[in-house]
Specification:
alpha/beta, Phosphoenolpyruvate Carboxykinase, domain 1, Phosphoenolpyruvate Carboxykinase, domain 3, Phosphoenolpyruvate Carboxykinase, domain 2, 3 domains, 9-stranded mixed beta sheet, 16 helices, globular
């Protein structure tokens, strides 16, 4: 029951499903070339219908790729176990293939496109013999949106198909959009000769890490992925198209492709605000996007537009407008329960694929660390091995996942399908930091806000392969996902201000600051509503703040702590204190990234860094020197 062995063929009797070829000549020519290269025994053309979904789910169970869970406990839910060497994104094997290494920049792995194509074509040659090739057309973005983009993924993984159906608008809707784009180009309404659809070719091969590559060709709107069966490496509409290739498209076409959640916040008085927030993977994006406010905020409504990716562009009114290009969630599941994220619990209770959690085989149920209810006395762990609590190991992989359609979310915003998107009031940057960074602070202006995002850092998590817990720079949470030179990406952010008469305010947050005993100072989860309320009040000019060297932090009298009986005033003081010694060390740590960008680093950001260094030299109110870890203008 895993993807370590490529699946055999589908049943011959499909009832007519999977037989209708698209009629776009360019698309058909590429499909035929890929068939000739990969040599599949069958080709299945996906239409996105319910009948197709039922057929493919049944086939996935027959082939041992999925296990159906108890339909009474978890209706429409299935279990999948990946290969043990294939459980996370492989950033070290992810390449940006541009004509020159300078175009990809120092934060990306680069290979010359011709060389990489030749290597991969050799791997793809005959790679699907004895297998089925699935043709998966998909649409990123709401139908009718000017930002919507078409992709087509060819894959030999039925698991990929079933996941792509949940996280994208898959099937005929994408082909209809492609037809519309083709008509616009024929009528000269589209002047660019850039490919109208993203071409994605994926084969699991034998899942050998030595033959695993995820390669992006931004100028050609193409992705080639081999040797993996794990979501982030093979669901090519996710990070691959929507961010790595999407960020290049955005820079070329004057919009933004960002690793950001989108939420709608409505006050009891009916005041509406839309917020975009960038957090690295496994740092609370989904929890924040699905937040339920505490009782103190009765009457407030938080609705989810998206939990992972935002595409944004200036609108005719001078505001920044955003859409969620996805239609589902591919979320990290450990720690998810009715206390941390009740809306996520409801979302994953049906029509969900669970990957690499523990399996209660006799009960047709799943379990993970942090799930509601008692710890099971025994189960099969994510590897399929017998597990009991006494072993002291994790039953679910720390990066285990759920894949659910967004329609399951009880807090889904009606605007999630709005073609024109929503106007953004504020942008939030946040990472996992045990020290240094305050609970919340505001940038002085757009340029300072870009500096804030460009210098953000976070402790690494299990979402990516490699060491966990190390602090690394993760600009705008885009370090693994920016498809071109990071310095040019910063410049694009700065240039976007030219089209914005009412730019969003920019904030930094940190839910993860700890005390000297290692305990979290802030409770997080629903209590993050208090931070969001202060941000909204700042957008409306209703709350003051204290100026510090790094930006504006809340004043105690303008920050609602009512009802937090277990939270002390001292904790709030610690959470809003700026320590000059820590921030001087932070400035030093920023230097490595900035130096690596060379001449591509915008002068404005270099100036912001120098100005911050000078502000940190200003003595504290009592006249003591700031470089002795004094507090700068703390409340």
């Amino acid at each position: 029951m895993n993807s370590s062995s490529p699946a055999p063929l589908l049943q011959a009797a499909t009832g007519g499903l999977g037989t209708r070829r698209p009629d776009d000549p360019e698309l058909v020519a590429w499909i035929d070339d890929s068939i000739a290269l990969c040599r599949p025994e069958q080709v299945f053309y996906c239409d996105g219908s319910d009948a197709e979904d039922e057929f493919l789910l049944a086939e996935a169970c027959r082939l041992g790729v999925l296990t159906r869970l108890d339909p009474q406990k978890l209706p429409g839910c299935y279990y999948h176990r990946s290969a043990q060497n294939d459980v996370a994104r492989v950033e070290q094997l992810t390449f940006i293939c541009t004509p020159t290494a300078e175009q990809a920049g120092p934060t990306n792995h680069w290979t010359e496109p011709g060389e990489m194509r030749s290597k991969l074509r050799g791997m793809f040659a005959g790679s699907m013999r004895g297998r089925t090739m699935f043709v998966v057309p998909y649409l990123m973005g709401p139908p009718g949106s000017p930002l919507a983009k078409v992709g087509v993924e060819l894959t030999d993984s039925i698991y990929v198909v079933l996941n792509m159906r949940k996280v994208t608008r898959m099937g005929e809707t994408a082909l209809r959009h492609l037809q519309q784009l083709r008509r616009l180009r024929l009528n000269d309404a589209i002047k660019s000769d850039f490919p109208l659809f993203n071409r994605g070719l994926h084969s699991m091969l034998d899942l050998d890490p030595a033959r695993r590559f995820i390669c992006h060709f931004p100028q050609d709107n193409e992705i080639l992925s081999v040797g993996s069966g794990y979501g982030g490496n093979v669901l090519l509409g996710k990070k691959c198209f929507s961010l790595r290739v999407g960020s290049y498209l955005a820079q070329s076409q004057g919009w933004m492709a960002e690793h950001m959640l989108l939420l709608a916040a409505e006050s009891p008085e009916g005041e509406q605000h839309y917020i975009a927030a960038a957090f690295p993977s496994a740092c609370g994006k989904t929890n924040f996007a699905m937040m339920i406010p505490p009782a103190r905020f009765a009457g407030w409504k938080i609705r989810t537009i998206g939990d992972d990716i935002a595409w944004m562009q200036p609108g005719p009114d001078g505001r920044l407008w955003a859409v969620n290009p996805e239609s589902g969630y591919f979320g990290v599941i450990p720690g998810t329960n009715s206390g941390t994220n009740p809306n996520a619990v409801a979302t994953i209770s049906r029509d969900t694929i669970y990957t690499n959690v523990a399996l209660l085989e006799d009960e047709g149920d799943v379990w993970w660390e942090g799930k509601d209810g008692p710890v099971p006395a025994r189960c099969a762990d994510w590897r399929g091995e017998p597990w009991t609590p006494e072993l002291g190991t994790k039953a679910a992989h720390p990066n285990s996942r759920f894949t659910s359609p967004m329609r399951n979310n009880p807090a889904l915003a009606p605007e999630a399908d709005e073609a024109r998107g929503v106007p953004i009031s504020a942008i939030i940057f946040g990472g996992r930091r045990g020290d240094t960074v305050p609970l919340v602070y505001q940038s002085r202006d757009w340029t300072h806000g870009v500096f804030l995002g460009a210098t953000m850092a976070s402790e690494t998590t299990a979402a990516a392969a490699g060491a966990v817990g190390q602090v690394r720079r993760d600009p705008m949470a885009m370090l693994p996902f920016c498809g071109y030179h990071m310095g040019d990406y910063f410049a694009h952010w700065l240039e976007m201000a030219n089209g914005l008469e009412q730019p969003p305010l920019i904030f930094g947050v940190n839910w993860f600051r700890r005390d000297t005993a290692g305990k979290f100072l802030w409770p997080g989860f629903g209590e993050n509503m208090r931070v969001l309320k202060w941000i909204i009040d700042r957008c409306e000019g209703r709350a003051d703040g204290n100026e510090t060297a790094i930006g504006i932090v809340p004043r105690r009298e303008d920050f609602d702590l009512a009802g937090m009986t277990d939270f002390s005033e001292e904790n709030f003081r610690r959470l809003t204190t700026v320590d000059a010694a820590e921030w001087n060390r932070e400035l030093d740590a920023q230097g490595e990234l900035f130096a690596s960008l060379g001449a591509h680093l915008p002068a404005e950001l270099a100036a912001e860094r120098e100005q911050l260094r000078q502000r940190l030299l200003v003595p504290a109110a009592d006249g003591s020197p700031s470089d002795d870890a004094v507090e700068l203008l703390s409340p």
